[in-house]
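Expect sequence, tokenised fold; for instance:
***
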Amino acid sequence: MSKTSINARLAMIQAFASFMDSGNQSATVIFYEDVQPASPAVAADPDAALVTLTFPEPCIKETTATYVELHPTDTATVIKTGTATWARIYNGAGEVAADLTVGADISLANTNLVLGGTLSITSIKLRP
């Protein structure tokens, strides 16, 4: 397996963030309570959605030598009580950008979300 330079990996992350900003809407991240699909190509169960957070445009806040940081999301109301187990990021065109496992790829202060509660993401750093 070949290894890429840090600059090449940062360029890939910047391209990912640009992909997130594409489309007529803002990028979103939806947290789900069910089993994460095997790949981003598999549709998520809309009934398992707990909360949808929206990124500002552009979503890139800062690019450094070691990461690309995204702007914080809005604060959204939880629409269903459940334990967040995974999240899916969609770009502004509604296309799947990435799936994240809660606890491994993305951390929440509390994974137990309660109907009517609120959630926001204050810091997202994509590292190559």
Remarks:
- The chain has a mean pLDDT of 91.
- Residues 6-21 form the longest helix (16 residues).
